[in-house]
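> forwarded from #structure-qc
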């Protein structure tokens, strides 16, 4: 090889069109992956906020029922006292609270057994497209 050919390769600066396209392709794949994960992270953060809000609403309603048991008595805790659903709107999300009270068997605490002296209280809060959270408690007639 002659001296002129070697100096041509050594003095070449910049990158070729193919190298530039490959660099853009690699960057776009990386950015797409990052943005996809970013979307999931923000969606999960928002979902977590809704779960905490729904949990607080369910806990608050359960405390109201338990307080009623202490103040007005076991016999007054029934479905008629807590009409369902009652809606609460926080921001732009509507949460629907429902209360179900029924007497249960002492052996399994789930099957219906009128006159058993035990009531199960289920408080369910739903929001969005079918997300729900349920809190429950058992109270006795004492």
């Amino acid at each position: 090889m002659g001296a002129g050919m070697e100096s041509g390769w050594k003095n070449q600066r910049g990158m070729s069109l193919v190298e530039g396209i490959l660099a853009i392709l690699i960057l776009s794949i990386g950015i797409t992956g990052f943005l996809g994960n970013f979307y999931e992270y923000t969606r999960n953060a928002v979902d977590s906020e809704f779960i905490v809000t729904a949990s607080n609403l369910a806990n608050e309603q359960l405390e109201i029922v338990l307080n009623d048991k202490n103040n007005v008595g076991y016999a007054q805790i029934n479905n008629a006292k807590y009409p369902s659903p009652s809606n609460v709107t926080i921001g732009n999300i509507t949460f629907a609270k429902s209360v179900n009270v029924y007497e249960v068997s002492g052996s399994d605490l789930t099957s219906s057994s009128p006159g058993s002296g035990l009531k199960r209280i289920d408080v369910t809060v739903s929001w969005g497209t079918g997300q729900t959270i349920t809190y429950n408690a058992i109270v006795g007639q004492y």
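QC bot note: The mean pLDDT is 85. The CA atoms of residues 29 and 60 lie 47 Å apart.
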